[in-house]
Amino acid sequence: INEAGVGMELTFRNNHTVVVRTLPDNPARKAGIKPGDRIVKINDENVDGKTTEDVAKKLRGKAGDKVKVEILRGADTLTFEMTREKINNVSAYSDKTAIISVYRFAEDTGSLVRKLAEQAKAKQVDKVILDLRNNGGGYVSAAGEMLSLWLNGGDKYMIEKSIHNDDKTDYVPRGKNPIFKDTKTIVLINRSTASASEIVAGALKDYQKA
Q1: According to DSSP H, which parts of 60-108 are helical?
Q2: What's the confidence (pLDDT) of residue 3?
């Protein structure tokens, strides 16, 4: 999926779509949009009262295209024009401790985190902090890719139970080097850690890797 966006996480609050957070090094934060801003219009179309999903779809589009967003901040109405970019969902800072922040699970999140892990190991990092706070999830397959940094290929990480007895089991992909298998790891979560990010946190805890 080559869709681009502006790097905002949204929620539906009191019948309005509101910004929960903006992602580092992405257009919304650079433009000055802040958590708590209420989205009123997108490209002059009134979206106040629309669902978060509807608003998110209108914010996404082709990389390089401009999008105009009108927000309500307290009593002030502000307008921002941004250029859509491919969103950076991962950041890392390494000393002897690698701090890896993942904001959502996009299609390429697993491969991006693996590159960061390889860089961290090359610097002889011996501890990892995986920050999944405010990560609303995304692709479950990306969760499996990320878990391959700690777990062995073929390990189960999710079983979906069905009332029709056609249960589905997801396994960590094979052929991947579990770079952090023996690395002390701490995972940060909060009330907004959901879906694929919950799966990662739960699996690392169940396998006693974090």
Answers
A1: none
A2: 65
Distance CA 34, CA 207 (A): 38
d(CA 129, CA 24): 18
Contacts (Cβ under 8 Å, ≥6 apart) of 49? 15, 16
Is the dihedral angle over the CA atoms 165, 170, 175, 178 positive or is it negative? negative
Phi, psi for residue 132 in degrees, rounded to 5: -110, 20
Q: Which residues of the chain have pLDDT under 50?
A: 1-2
Q: What CA–CA distance (Å, rounded) separates 150 from 12?
A: 35
Q: Specify the 3-state DSSP secondary structure of 138.
A: strand
DSSP one-letter code for 172: P
Task: Give bridge partners of residue 127 from the DSSP assignment.
Answer: 97, 184
pLDDT for 91: 64
Give tens-digit pLDDT for 105-139: 888 899 989 998 998 888 888 999 999 988 888 89
Report whether 32 contacts 80 (CB < 8 A).
yes
Reduced to 3 states (helix: H, G, I; strand: E, B; else coil), residue 78 is strand
Q: Are the C-beta atoms of 28 and 43 separated by less than 8 Å? A: no
128-151 burial by CB neighbour count: b if 16+ within 10 A, else e? bbbbbbbbbbbbbebbbbbbbbbb
pLDDT of residue 92: 63
Burial of 125 (0-12, 13-18, 19+ CB in 10 A): buried
CB distance 139 to 200 below 8 Å: no
